[in-house]
Design brief:
Layout lengths: L15 H21 L3 E8 L4 E8 L6 H9 L1 H6 L2 H19 L1 H8 L6 H14 L6 H16 L4 H13 L10 H14 L14 H27 L12 H6 L2 H35 L19 H6 L4 H25 L5 H14 L1 H20 L1 H15 L4 H15 L6 H18 L4 H14 L10 H10 L10 H29 L12
Antiparallel strand pairs: 1-2
Helix pairs in contact: 1-16, 4-7, 4-14, 4-15, 6-7, 6-8, 6-10, 7-8, 8-10, 8-21, 9-19, 9-20, 10-22, 12-14, 16-21, 17-18, 17-19, 18-20, 19-20, 20-22
């Protein structure tokens, strides 16, 4: 008898770059199939001039033909260069590199963060990530690498820091401490949709302020528990090479007094560097704040003075503050890093600055190729209109049901969460959904302001588990930068699997917050309630 040998199939790992290529090809093929079957949808679009609904037809655009292939080839460079994720990352990394190379981040970690418990550090990171959505998506580009640095400096697995920062931004998107860009962009649509029922209805900018403040705190606490108790224990230990082990014999021969003197001098330099950095940071913040104050000599530089309201001047479409915020943050890290370096004598000339600015960018070189293929995938998918068609179908489903109260609320949130897997931009979704969702909820005695919060919830619940999110590629890229087994890349599938516990628990938390507020009738803003 022949021995029966069990054949074990080797696991096959698709590198993220390969997967983005496959996904792009798949989208192109699907666009051809859907177009052949005339996949389309009709939705009610709100005319801002007449405040009347207009029937709009949207169809899937076929990219699996001569013109489609020509579009893909001719727009490849444009898609890459206009990919916001690329520019945001590169600008943010420059300032972060200076702060790291000068020693500011390591010293701050040693003197402040290392004295805190791991849970407190994780909470601070997730909380900052959650409220970072106040102004665009800089939290992804800045806090993901910063989280990795902090965790690694504390001898923890840096992948835990990456996960905490990414999940904080993605699954807490829209939960902030102040009125921000999201309100400015959504309020007008919510108000116009509400006026389909009540022509005098007004939706204020602070209509969600109470509930989003509470949500940002609750999500950060729950997120910290999930990361510390459910995710980090499964990551394993991160092996850090200790170069000092090889110098043990030499260190034994060094005069103890000289060593103590050196430590004393280093301590003085670090203190002086931190003092310089603190003074510089205060001055920078004061200058930035002055640039946001209108009608003072030389002030208001960052405001769009063509707008009538202050919040529109600050967060409007043409706001200099919003458009330049990433650069401002980089200038902040650049200035404080230089101030620390001069005080601690870790930066002595312009050569040190240039080397410092490029030190960390070398480590993220592998991200550039990944960003290129991710940009093609995102651009091609958006061009097909598949997301718009699905969103229109979703609005029609909500329009057809006869639910009221809690069943209607849950239906809206879950449909928004599902649509978000394909359409990750809240404004684009709300433009299609609001003319149906807001009147539907108002007829069920639910306020438009609460309807807007439902959008926030559904938009955040699944944002972190879809590759269509433009900043998802940064999460995958950084996971692989700190991956210690290059033969087994962290795939897109695995990167999603790692954070699924976070996604599920935070989704339930969002739903719990919604139901508690609706059932108890607690105000969601100043004199604004879940019900009319």
């Amino acid at each position: 008898m022949r021995d029966k040998r069990k054949m074990k199939l080797k696991k096959f790992y698709f590198h993220p770059i390969t997967m983005f290529i496959v996904l792009t090809i798949l989208v192109v093929l699907l666009s051809g199939i859907f177009s052949a079957f005339e996949m389309q949808a009709t939705y009610a679009k709100l005319n801002v001039n007449t405040n009347q609904l207009e029937s709009t037809l949207v169809t899937v655009e076929n990219l699996c033909n001569y013109d489609g292939i020509k579009y893909i080839i001719s727009n490849a460079s444009r898609n890459f260069m206009s990919f916001t994720t690329l520019s945001t990352l590169l600008i943010a990394i420059i300032g972060l590199s200076i702060s790291q190379s000068s020693g500011l981040i390591d010293t701050f970690n040693k003197r402040v963060l290392s004295k805190m418990s791991n849970e407190k550090v994780t909470f601070i990171l997730i909380f900052l990530a959650t409220i970072s959505s106040l102004i665009n998506e800089i939290g992804y580009a800045l806090l993901i690498p910063l989280g990795a640095m902090i965790f690694k400096a504390n001898k923890r697995n840096p992948i835990g820091g990456i996960i905490a920062a990414f999940c904080g931004v993605a699954f807490g998107y829209g939960a902030t401490l102040f009125v921000g860009s999201m309100e400015v962009n959504l309020i007008s649509t919510s108000e116009q949709a509400a006026r389909l029922i009540d022509s005098t209805y007004h939706v204020g900018l602070s209509s969600n302020i109470y509930i989003i403040i509470a949500t940002s705190i609750v999500l950060s606490i729950v997120g910290t528990i999930v990361v510390e108790k459910m995710i980090i224990p499964k990551l394993g230990r991160y092996k850090i090479e200790d170069k000092n082990l090889e110098k043990t014999e030499e260190l034994d021969l060094i005069n103890i007094e000289e060593e103590e003197q050196k430590k004393f001098e280093d301590d003085l330099r670090e203190k002086k560097g931190l003092k310089n950095a603190l003074i510089t940071s205060i001055l920078m913040i004061l200058v930035f704040v002055y640039m946001l104050i209108p009608n003072l000599p030389g002030s208001g530089i960052l405001l769009d003075m063509s707008e009538t309201t202050y919040l529109n001047q600050l967060f409007g479409v043409n706001s200099y503050f919003q458009d330049g915020f990433t650069f401002l943050v980089t200038i902040f890290f650049l200035a404080t890093g230089i101030a620390y370096g001069l005080g601690a004598k870790t930066v002595r000339n312009d050569k040190d600055l240039v080397e410092g600015a490029t030190s960390y960018t070398i480590e993220i070189a592998s991200l550039i190729s990944l960003l290129f293929f991710a940009s093609q995938f995102v651009a091609v998918f958006r061009k097909t209109n598949i997301a718009t068609v699905v969103t229109a179908w979703a609005s029609n489903i909500i329009n057809e049901v006869n639910f009221t109260g809690i069943p209607l609320i849950l239906l809206v949130v879950l449909i928004v969460a599902f649509v978000n897997l394909l359409a990750t931009t809240p404004i684009a979704k709300w433009t299609i959904l609001a003319p149906v969702v807001v009147p539907k909820l108002m007829q069920a005695n639910i306020s438009p302001q609460f309807a807007q919060f439902l959008l926030r919830a559904g938009d955040s619940m699944t944002k972190g588990i879809t590759p269509i999110l433009a900043y998802f590629v940064l999460y995958v890229g950084y996971l692989n930068i700190y991956n210690q087994d290059p033969k087994k890349p962290i795939t897109i599938g695995k990167s999603i699997k790692i954070i699924m516990p976070y996604c599920l628990v935070i989704s339930l938390t969002w739903l719990a917050i919604i139901l508690i507020w609706y059932i108890t009738g607690i105000p969601i803003g100043n004199n604004i309630y879940p019900t009319l």
